[in-house]
Amino acid sequence: MEEAKGVVKHIVVAKFKDDISPQQIEELINGYANLVSLVPSMKAFQWGKDVSAENMHQGFTHVFESTFESTEGVAEYVAHPAHVEYANLFLPCLDKVIVIDYKPTTLHV
Description:
Homodimer. It holds the Pfam family Dabb. This is Stress-response A/B barrel domain-containing protein HS1. Residues 8-102 form the Stress-response A/B barrel domain. This protein is an alpha+beta fold. It has one domain: Alpha-Beta Plaits (2-Layer Sandwich). The chain has three helices and six strands, in the order ββαββααββ. The protein has helices spanning 22-38, 71-79, 81-90; strands at residues 2-3, 8-16, 42-49, 62-68, 94-102, 105-106. The strands form two sheets. Strands 3-4-2-5 form a four-stranded antiparallel β-sheet. A two-stranded antiparallel sheet has the order 1-6. It is flat, with a radius of gyration of 15 Å. It starts with a strand and ends with a strand.
């Protein structure tokens, strides 16, 4: 197995509150994506909605993935004023959330 050198994935798995409209969700996602242009340590952003047929999502509906070059980059992102401002808008709209940071590992078989 080979751990990616430095690269860190920041994963947010979320369920929006029932009273948050699709338009509000779209605006929040656009704001999240915009952080890439505001936070130097944030290198990439992707998101998607649950499409699993396994029905094991436990109510979570959205996944957000940000890429950083290091754990220090994630720490810079978390403390960055643009992220703090965005988090203050985003988090109150969530019914539940899980956040996980990991270093991708490639398995060579």
